[in-house]
């Protein structure tokens, strides 16, 4: 890919922002709304297909039904983004969930913006959109990172800049792919979190441990303790050494790690005498933009 490729974290927001400004006036024909690359077109829904390597693999059917009901009442408010394919067909770049819901709502056409994206840009935009909307589970996100690194020679640091996350977040997610498939399935199903998965990497009998943790709904801290016991050969936790005097509260450390996993940023918590501070460290303007978007609910 060209070195001139722009970072997409902020570019995606601008792209989708254009969509909201360009919604055609009710009653206009397709011809009236196709007067430029940035205009919205009404495309036959049967000619639109998802990308075969879309990062998101799992769609909540009940959530799709709710969106379909909204589309029946109000239409598709935000256009999908597509790229043209041979034979007057189109491939989804962003918005597969809206396309699926529109099918459930039995629409024959869907509003779309047609863009000329390369294969690499298509995958990057799909990844960024899903991450910004928090639509990917940790395994799907890790698989998408691995695909982008393998196929388009991104470094972990370069990927982190693209998606507005820290390099350590990208690295930690990709380590989840070292877990056995059965454990990855539990993470994908939402029965285990990213924190659970990280604690289980390299653990003895990790599949049995993972099933036990999911069945008992253990916390990440409890999981870490269980893994330590398993690595010590099954010795009772009573044999664990007491925490040295002056060490940090393990609950605060666990909370920092949990927030770091959720945000993809380094998080620090200082607490003393019933009050304290929480700090978020960013290393790029894209990460700062992501923080502002989350804090303001997308209204920044």
From TrEMBL:
Region (Disordered): 19-39, 229-251
Superkingdom classification of source: Bacteria
CDD domains linked: SPO0J_N (cd16393)
Keywords: Chromosome partition, DNA-binding
UniProt key word DNA-binding: yes
Basic and acidic residues: compositionally biased ranges: 19-31, 229-241
One Gene Ontology term from the biological process aspect of the record: positive regulation of sporulation resulting in formation of a cellular spore
InterPro entries from the UniProt entry: Chromosome_partition/occlusion, HTH_ParB/Spo0J, ParB/RepB/Spo0J, ParB/Sulfiredoxin_sf, ParB_dimer_C, ParB_N
GO molecular function annotation: DNA binding
Domain ParB-like N-terminal: residue ranges: 41-131
One Gene Ontology term, aspect cellular component: chromosome
Function: Involved in chromosome partition. Localize to both poles of the predivisional cell following completion of DNA replication. Binds to the DNA origin of replication.
Family, as annotated: Belongs to the ParB family.
Protein name: ParB/RepB/Spo0J family partition protein
Source species: Sphingobium nicotianae
Lineage: Bacteria, Pseudomonadati, Pseudomonadota, Alphaproteobacteria, Sphingomonadales
